[in-house]
Every structure is written in C-alpha cells, then in structure tokens.
Amino acid sequence: MKALIIGAAGFVGGYLIRELKAAGWEVHATCLPNEEIKEECPVHTLDILKKED
What we know:
Elements: E1 2-5, H1 13-22, E2 26-31, E3 43-45
Parallel strand pairs: 1-2, 2-3
C-alpha cells in the first residue's frame, strides 16, 4: 500500500511515517519549504495554501 502524508513535519507526522513504514507501506511526505522531516522517506515541498504548488 502507499501513503502520502500531508504536513508530515507536524507533531504526529513522524510517528505516522514510522508506523506505516513498519507495516510495510510505501510512504511519501510533504512539508513547507522551511520545515524538515527527520524520518527516512521521499519528501516533497508543498504549501497547500498556494494552488500553483
């Protein structure tokens, strides 16, 4: 299965990434340009308030 976590740099994002990966999921994550995600997964920069993104 695949998951895309929007706003993965938030409080729950890291936990969700770890749990899904441990269950065998393919995980991708999004964050704002000034944020970083410490978990190992493909990260995409996205600001959902900008429709051109």
